[in-house]
Amino acid sequence: MTDMSASSFVRQDLVAERAAPAKTTGFIGFLRTRLLNSPGNILLTILGLLLAWYIVVPTVKFLLVDAVWAGKDRTACLAEKAGHEVGACWPYIEAKLTQLIYGFYPEAQRWRVNLTYALGAALLLPLLMPRLPAKGINSGLFFFAFPVVAFFLLHGGGVAGFGVSWTAGVLQLFEQSVGGAGDLLVNLSKSSAIAPLPWVLGKLLVLVGLLIHWLIFPLTWLRDQLQLSSLPVWGDFLVTAVIVSAVLFVVGGGMRTGRRALIGSLLTFAGIAVGIKLMGLDRGGFPIVDTRLWGGLLVTLVIAITGIVASMPIGIALALGRRSSIPLIRIFSIAFIEFWRGVPLITVLFFATYMLPLFVPGNFAVDGLLRALIGVAIFTGAYMAEVIRGGLAAVARGQAEAASALGLSWWKTTSLIVLPQALRYVIPGIVNSFISLFKDTSLVSIVALFDLLGSLRASFSDPNWSTPTTAFTGFAFAGMIYFVFCFGMSRYSLFVEHRLNAHRRH
């Protein structure tokens, strides 16, 4: 016990202070842990600083420091007039801004473009905010009502009929096509070496066309009677509303559960009636502005938004079709995807612009911008199909098996369980395709459509603004616009991905 007491030690002085630990937070900590923590990172940091010095500094100097901000013509952007080295010529952008936004759209009608922009933003922004309610109504307005309203606002014109007239016209066109093909085969049989076969096929098609004619006769008769009335548009509208509402009421369950579908249909038609009345579509609507006068940012946004919205359902249908167990659907989907992915977008645009009119009847004209929109939507849909197919392959097989064990049908399993998970997995790929499509809209200038870059190139021909820095200023301004839209889509996709993957965060 005495030995233990003698060997015990009690410190009488305080322990000396230790050195402070290396700082790992703040700006100094960021430099130490991210940029200067190894010889390799130090070398990369030095190279990055040199690159920024030789790229960022001259860019800022050109766009801001040496830029000319005021002037009425090209002389303001010349070094002789400014007295120093001239950078960006921003008075040129100010003078050509309306051309870059609207193209050659008539100045008196540009309020229609501004109203379309405002309506699109007012419907899109609430759709992008997760916490806001009424997403179903908002989606219906943006994806279904807004395209129709935007078409009549931008293009103009009115409606001469409604559902009855449109359906009768489409069926009558089909009847004329079948009958015309039969007459063509009968005429070819007169000079053909195998005359009986074309003659038989031609007569058969003529009989089919005659049968279609008598089948649709009640509908065409009703259309003709409506057109002879004093209010053809509203009469057609009323008949269409009654027929559609009655069908939805019966399909929805009749007196037991069909009232909700009936009320929704009546409210929808009431909203359509208000839109027709406000826009005067029954009286000719707004003055027609030919799409050849559209240009600038307007054409870029129309092509990009149409391609983005239309490519998603096309891609989903093709991706599901490629995984289908029905051979005909699977083979068609594979052939469709591989064909459109095997040709460049420029070829698709040339085909849609110059070759497509050769395959339609002579009395059926397709607008040039509409042809480009169809080509872009199909092309992007083929790429989107492969992106979505990758997401479908990533969903565990047990998910579908568990849904099947619960008694869910294939449609409910796909729409409620498999497809939502697949789309969540491939959000980066989907947004990457959207960004690529937005930038590829500049290719439409090859087929005589003046998008943002097309209008920019057209503005270079103005001799009043011909300076050594005009082209650099214009391309820098266009690059800023493209960057804002593409960067915004990228950041929002990160937000959505982070929010949908909340179950994986610790």
Short description:
The chain has 506 residues and is mainly alpha-helical. The chain has helices at 2-7, 26-35, 39-65, 79-82, 90-102, 110-128, 135-154, 163-189, 196-215, 217-227, 232-251, 259-279, 297-322, 327-341, 345-355, 368-394, 397-405, 410-425, 427-440, 452-459, 470-500.
Structural notes for this entry:
The chain is mainly α and 506 residues long. The chain has 21 helices and no strands. Helix 5 packs across helix 20, helix 8 runs antiparallel to helix 9 and helix 13 packs across helix 16. It starts with a helix and ends in a 6-residue tail after the last helix. The model has no long low-confidence stretch (mean pLDDT 86).
Number of strands: 0
Average pLDDT score: 86
Oligomer: single chain
Contiguous helical run count: 21
**Shape field:** globular
Counting helices, strands and paired strands, the structural category is mainly alpha
Any low-confidence stretches, pLDDT <50, length ≥5? none
Task: Tell me the distance between the termini.
Answer: 55 Å
Describe the sheet with the most strands.
none
What is the percent of helical residues? over 70%
Strand content: under 5%
Write out key terms for the chains shown.
506 residues, mainly alpha, 21 helices, globular
Topology, pairings included?
Elements: H1 2-7, H2 26-35, H3 39-65, H4 79-82, H5 90-102, H6 110-128, H7 135-154, H8 163-189, H9 196-215, H10 217-227, H11 232-251, H12 259-279, H13 297-322, H14 327-341, H15 345-355, H16 368-394, H17 397-405, H18 410-425, H19 427-440, H20 452-459, H21 470-500
